[in-house]
Structures are given as C-alpha cells and as structure tokens.
Design goal:
about 425 residues
Length: about 425
C-alpha cells in the first residue's frame, strides 16, 4: 500500500472554486470532461474506502472527497446512458448506486449474497445481478436479482441455481445466466417476468459455459465454454470451445474446440479468448512453469485463426479490454508470480499485452505478447477514449500504460489505499 495522501477539505461551490494560497484571489481548476472512477477498499488512518474521481484527460486526481460506496467497494458497472455507476462491496454485500453527474451515492441496496457479475439493460432501467448463494425456499440457492435503477429496489428474482455470471443481448430481450459446475445455459426472457409465462429456459449441451456474445439482431449467441479449466471433464481431449445458441429456438450448435477460454472479447468478427489449459502449455524465456493461451477466433467461419500458440501468463483470466493501437490487455488472478530477488531478475505477474495488429512492434517479441514486469492480480482494465492510454489496476495499484510502448507512462496517479476497479463515466 502506498503512503496515504492527506487530502485537505475544500468547500466546493458550483463552479469548484477554491482559494489560492497567500491571498484572497480565486482560481478555477480545469473542468473535468473525462472522468474515471476508481474503487478503493481500505479504511485505515487517513484513508477512507470509497470511489475516487480522476481526471482521465490530464491523469490527475480531482479535488473532491471519495464517494461512499459500502465497506469495501470493488467491481463497478456503468449504465449505458452514463447516468449511474453501480458499485459492489463484498464485505457487506452492498450495491451502491452513484449519480455520475452529482458524484454522490443516491441509493444503496443489500444483496442476499456475494456477486461478481451484473449487467445493465440497454435502456439503463434495470440491472441483472447473479447471486449464487441467494436462498430459495424449497430449491437450491442461486438467483438472478432484477433491480429497478430508478428506485434502487429488487423487483423480481429468477431462480438459477449456483448462478455465477450473466450476459445480456443488445436489445435486452434475453439475459443468459451461467452457473458453477453446470453444462447448461439459463435463457431468461425479461418481458415474461410477472406475466405467468415461463421466464427461464435451461438449455443443455454446453461445456461449463461462462459468457456469451450476441449477433446484432440478438438471434444468435456465441457461448464461451470454459470447459476443463472450470471443472469439466474433457471429451476427445477438448479443453474448451466456442458454441452457438440459436435464441429463436433455444437450440445449441456444434462446439468448436479451442485450447482455453475463461474470458473473451469480441472486436468486429473476431473473438479473443484467454484461459489456462489444464494440460501443460509451452513456456519459454521465463521461470514460470505454467502459461496461459490466447486464441483468435473468427465468428463468421467459426474457426481458430492463429496458426501458432499465443502464450500469455497463466492464472484464471477474468479481465480483458482492447486499447488504442490494437493493444489487447488480458488480466488474470492467482497466476504464477515471479518476484525479483536480485537486480535484473525476471519480474512477472498476471498481465499480458497482445498486439492484435501485427506480430511484432517496437519492443514486442515474436508472437506479439508483452508481459510487463509487474506483480499482482489484475482487477480492473479501462482504455481511455481518444488517448493512447489504458488505466489498469494490478496488485492494488493504479497503473497507466502507454499503448504505443506497452510500458508505464512517466506520469502516474497515486491512489491512497488499495485500488480494485476502474471505469470511465463520461461519453
């Protein structure tokens, strides 16, 4: 943890005026038009847990106190209309609703358990929250809670045993839910809630699914099957796969094998999947004995497009984002950490950066992958629009990467306490 910064208490007028030192004249700080929120989960001494506000255009801290967001603010989701940011606190299972314009908490809801996945409807009116341990009378625990974002109240609950992750289509007419140790996808139809018609349909034939991406018409979902890495039993040596789901008939397609996949990102017609095979993968040039793999997959032809293995760090990959210059940032937790003992020793953590545009650029070795010399789990990744910059949280520290070099830029921002997640909140 970095040494806490002692923030002076300022009286903030509407224009954010503050007194300059030594005289009675006033000066106005630059208006922040591109803000980033950073969740910080430590309260100790002069440090207060909350959501800190950054100027993402100038890489500076805003002169405001952190926004209160539960005991240990962590993962955040911004509504599509950028009006609110939802923040989950694991210590008290609190979901805080922040007004982005007011930069303040407007509501707080206690969930019936922990969540690590929630999505917002395209109209920004509802949230769907996966709570795997939520009690259900007479059934196994697990509920997708439906929350009204205008009132901050739970309006419905869809029973999905052990539900862990949720994905939502472009129109919001389907929410797909994925459960621990399950080979089924729960297809939720939100418009059926409260009508007496079936709200959820369980479709089998998958292989430990964890996420889905949708065609523009929402008729087809591309499901990421985590497979062996997520506890499944391999059939014909298949570790993981990508599989279609016809949402007009709830019919699964034929799975196409990939070497690993616990997280994915779609850019155009290409899906990038990252994961760690259970079967040992080839690691070279590192002290690490296990490595992960990145796969490029063409959704049009349903084929793997990389001809050689793209080797990345190991661990459980659950963060991925595409920054400027085609740089794909892939983060994991519980990876193999290499800590330097002597000067010049290898340093390796849970971050990999892959150049999607070319196999080699600048200091990038053949294969297009950079493993920055930084330790720790990656818990947040946020590319900054219109800039060659990515804000990233690794090992509890906010780090600012330059996508033209894949290195930390000279100017950094010191976050008091332990950072967890980072999101931009302005268009």
């Amino acid at each position: 943890m970095r040494r806490a910064l002692i923030l002076l208490s300022f009286s903030l007028a509407a224009g954010l005026l503050f007194l300059s030192c030594g005289n009675s004249s006033t000066s106005t700080p630059p208006r922040i038009t591109s803000r980033a929120f950073v969740s910080q989960d430590v309260s100790a001494g002069n440090i207060t847990a909350g959501v800190q506000i950054l100027d993402a255009e100038r890489d500076a801290r805003a002169f405001v106190a952190p926004i209160s967001a539960g005991a240990t603010p962590g993962i955040m989701v911004v509504t599509p209309n950028r009006v609110q940011t939802l923040v989950f606190s694991a210590a008290d299972n609190a979901l805080t609703f922040i007004s982005n314009a007011g930069e303040s908490a407007v509501a707080r809801l206690t969930l019936p358990g922990f969540t690590e996945s929630f999505v917002i409807s395209p109209d920004s009116l509802r949230a769907y929250v996966a709570v795997p341990t939520a009690p259900v009378v007479g059934q196994s625990p697990g509920v997708v809670e439906v929350i009204n974002l205008n009132t901050g109240a739970i309006t419905a609950g869809v029973n999905v045993p052990a539900v862990r992750y949720v994905s939502i289509g472009h129109s919001g007419n389907r929410v797909l839910a994925f459960s621990d140790n399950s080979d089924s996808v729960a297809v939720i139809t939100p418009s059926n809630i409260g009508t007496g018609n079936p709200v959820v349909t369980f479709v089998g034939g998958f292989y430990r699914p964890v996420a889905a991406f949708f065609t523009s018409d929402d008729n087809t979902a591309f499901v990421v099957n985590c497979g062996h890495e997520c506890g499944g039993t391999p059939v014909n040596d298949v570790e993981a796969s990508v599989q279609t789901l016809d949402l007009t008939t709830n019919t699964p397609g034929t799975p196409v094998p990939v070497k690993a996949g616990s997280v994915a990102l779609v850019n155009g017609a290409t899906m990038y999947l990252a994961g760690t095979p259970v079967a040992p993968s080839l690691c070279t040039g590192t002290k690490a004995t296990a490595c992960g793999l990145l796969t490029a997959f063409d959704l049009t032809t349903m084929t793997v497009t990389n001809s050689t293995d793209i080797v990345i760090t190991d661990g459980y990959h659950n963060r991925i984002a595409l920054g400027a210059n085609g740089q794909l940032f892939v983060g994991a937790r519980t990876c193999t950490e290499i800590v330097a003992i002597n000067k010049g020793d290898e340093v390796r953590g849970c971050l990999s950066i892959y150049n999607t545009l070319t196999s080699a650029v600048g200091n990038v070795p053949p294969g297009g992958v950079v493993i920055p010399p930084a330790n720790g789990d990656v818990t947040g990744i946020q590319p900054i629009a219109k800039r060659n910059v990515v804000y990233l949280v690794q090992g509890g520290e906010l780090q600012i990467y330059d996508t033209s070099t894949d290195k930390l830029q000279a100017k950094q921002i010191d976050i008091s306490g332990q950072a967890v997640d980072v999101k931009t909140v302005d268009f």
